[in-house]
Amino acid sequence: MTGLQTELALRQYDAIVIGAGHNGLTNAAYLAKSGLTVALLERNSYIGGATVSRELYPGWTYSNCSYVCSLLRPELARDLELPRHGLQVVPYGGGVTFTRDGDYYGNYYDHNRQYREMARHSPRDANAYERYATDVRKQTRLIRPYLLRRPPDPTSLKPRDLSDLLGFARAFMEMGEEGLADTLRFWTKSVGDYLNEYFETDVIKAHLGGTGVIGTALGVYSPGTAYVLLHHYMGDMDGNVGSWGFARGGMGAVADALAKSFQAFGGEIICDADVDRIMVRHGKVRGVALKNGNEYHADIVVSNLDPKRTFLDIMDAADLPADLLHKARNFKIRGSSGKLNIALDGLPTFRGLDPKSPLMLGDMHFTDSLERLERAYDDWKDGTWSKDPYVDMLIPTQTDPTMAPPGKHMMTVFVQYAPPKINGGEWTDADKAGFEKSVIDQIAAHSPDFRDLILHCETRTPREIEAEVGLTEGNIFQGELTFDQLLFNRPFPGYAQYRGPVRGMYMCGSGTHPGGGVMAAPGANAAREILRDLRRVDVVPECYADD
After folding, report:
1. Where are the beta strands (DSSP E) in 275-322?
2. Are residues 157 and 230 in the same domain?
3. Residue 237 domain boundaries
4. How far is CA 345 from CA 58, 260, 396, 450, 453, in A?
5. pTM higher than 0.90 for the full model?
6. Rounded distance, CA 315 to CA 278, Å?
7. Residues 255 and 171 grouped into a single domain
8. Are 367 and 97 in contact (CB under 8 A)?
9. CA–CA separation, 38 vs 509, rounded Å?
10. What integer is the mean pLDDT of 416-443?
11. Is residue 151 part of a domain?
12. CA neighbours closer than 13 Å in the CB half-sphere of residue 497
């Protein structure tokens, strides 16, 4: 042990945050901003968790887990001065779903062009889209004000909880009887059934419905997936709700900017710090012990790990209530996603699509019906990867040329479905190769030159995601976004306000409200509750009001 390591091991901090993903960084930044001495411990040699950029092939930068930016709350980005610390988010336009008959459905940001494209497939659907978009926006406006607030506890009689519940009830009552019925139906409905109420064209429904299953171990006809669609609709770019963008330099730029903000407030980041356990004495935390034997002491310990890893791996069962252990073991956190990051020798072409089309700049899909989406889910249920997968594919180097050498490109491919185990056993290299082939085959069926352009392919199954990032079963949301695991049920009833069962212990990861995605809201909300318990000034901004 070096002298510096010895000094750090003996340091006393006001607060320790475990895990330097974007929520851990956000939480640590606000605690440090309040004047606390804060240490952020990360087991890897780099920060970011799943929000990371890495050069895994010389000259190419991969956003090797999360890949697009929109959910990051603008209130937090502005307050922590992330643009000043280097974060640039560039919006991308539109998207496209290719059909097996050689046609495609294009999604344009221009309203008139979008109407014409929908009408090309179905005049009825073109006329229905405005009603659909309006209805989804209503649900968005309902939930957005609660993203940067702790969920109220419906079993509590505390004035703060009662006030919050009354506010929530008031928002529901203002909808009227019909609006309330529509909302309850929306939150419990499958995305497939919901879209069938508005549209008749398979490819349009498939294009819109894919967002309802991203990151979930559910299919398009599983109840509750309509909300998952909403979760992906809540983001915005410069006030444009539902739009998405690329972080210049890859998603690691988000983590880097958060780290610089945290360090500007005096915070310390300690990498290669693998936490063995949270130390507890007489019902109160006293710090953490690392696997290398070092100890870091603090009266506040915040876990950015998922609920299973927090309570089943790094806490002693003797320090926890039996009911919590039961809830942690039964918390739904099934992996369902994989990812390919591909270095390309040039820009691929796609049948029927002009290479200069704005649709090339957006997300690309190849599943042209809800039926095919559901069949992909059937493979997952059978314990294997989807043979005809749903992919969300982008080529960010068209917008951000810093991620590849001149004239070259990088392709990011998010994939549903990939199970955490194959037929109950561990993934093998042969399984991984088969999964990779299923994705490449699907893209190549619509791009005649795609295979010849591949220089390198990094394939990530739930096995790799769990091993590197520490997400149980490779679940990208730290727990499924089903109705029974939202709001005051996230992660568990009785523990949804970021506080753990031990005094001084808190949670700030995506396994808490409002859930997954690169949002940073859980980290900020947890910081607000910690500062409240410490009776310190609240430095966390409130949610912007919708117009």
Report:
1. 275-281, 284-290, 295-303
2. yes
3. 105-244
4. 13, 34, 14, 10, 5
5. yes
6. 6
7. no
8. yes
9. 17
10. 96
11. yes
12. 16
